[in-house]
Every structure is written in structure tokens, then in C-alpha cells.
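User: what does the whole thing look like in 3D?
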Amino acid sequence: MLELLKQPWPWYVSGTLIAIIMMFMLFAGKNFGFSSNFRIFCSACGAGRKFQFFDWDWKSQKWSLMFLVGTVIGGWISANYLASPDPVQISEATIADLAALGIAAPQTLQPLEIFNFEFLFTLKGFIFLGLGGLFVGFGARYAGGCTSGHAISGLSNFSAAITHCCNRFLYWWFDHDTFTITINSLT
Amino acid sequence: MKALKFILAGVVFGIVLTKSEAISWFRVQEMFRFQAFHMYGISALLWC
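Assistant: Here's the predicted 3D structure for the full assembly of 235 residues, as C-alpha cells:
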């Protein structure tokens, strides 16, 4: 049983389980979401005294923080007790594309050359992780949810604005190699 | 008690995200390059 759990789970198992968690949230009267925690953190730290956006009843959203705490624990359990012995099995095409950008084939779940502190303190690493993280964090609140949040909750609500957004995003993505190459030539 | 409910839901969610490899940078790259169905399969089930 444990051996079975240790293997990477197929998409239909994970998708079903996440759908069940979403249903639990809906029945509990909550909105399924994650990036809203950024706003809660800022408000909890007192940003509401200076900015109206953060001046709201964040304490009513404590359940969201509890969910976040649980997720971190879940990740820890997976990493320590359920870790797969094999690296993530991405397609050959992706491995070849990433190799062209100087990213080695997966050894674990994440690319080791990007997610490390040494890389963070180089110019390229700071743009990737520091600046990129800032943009993602700001954008996720500005847009009222992160990419996956809108893609999941928004698309299943058939929200017109969000469907439009996803279209724009996919359109933009086709052009993203230009951006990556620009970043690469910086260092 | 109510808090525990959400923590437990979170624990399950964390394990699922890790084991489905949805948190993997590699999986996200693969998804945006349209080179695998994996990530779309996960979200497609949620749209249903």
C-alpha cells in the first residue's frame, strides 16, 4: 500500500481528490483559493493602518490560514514519508526544450539549478525568483486570484472576464521564448 | 475543532499537490508548452 502511495499519482486520482476538497470547501461555505492568503498576511501584519485595501475583517478568513498551514504539513509529509524514488516523469519533448535553455533533466521534483540560494543572489536568479515572485504576488492580489485559481474556479464558473484572460495568457505564452532568451542573455 | 477540519483538508491538499507533481516547476513548463495532458487532466476534472 505504501509503495503504491509513493509512486507519482496519475492526474485522474489527484483531480478527483482536489475536486472533493473543493466540494468540502463549498459545503463549508468557503471559497477555494490560496493567493488570498497574501492579503491576509499583510492585513495581519498591520498594513490596514496605512492602506484601505488591507483594512478589512481578515480574522473572518482565519480558516484560509489554517488550510495553508495544513498544506505545508501535507507537503512535509509527502517529502519525508511518501517521496517517490524517481524524478518527475516529464515528456522527452520538454526535457529537450529545457536542455536548450540550459536546464538539466529532472533529478527530483524541482530544477536544482533554479531553486537554490546561490542562484537567488545572481542577477539572473534575482530577476527570476525575487522580481518574478514580487510580480506574481502583486498580480495575484491585483487580479483577485492567481493563475491557477482563476483557471480552476474562474473557468468552472464560466466567468467571461476570466475566460478572456486565459485566452490572452495562452496567446502571450506562445511568445514567451523571446522573453526567456532575453533574460538568458543578461548574464 | 473547526480549525482542525481545515487543517486536515489542507494536509490532504498538500499531499495531493505533491504526489500529483502539480507543484513541480517541470510539470508547469511541460503544461505551458502543451507537451503533456497531465496538468490539464487535473484541472479538467475540476471544471466538471
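In plain terms: The first helix of chain B runs from residue 2 to 19. Helices of chain B lie at 2-19, 25-32, 38-47.
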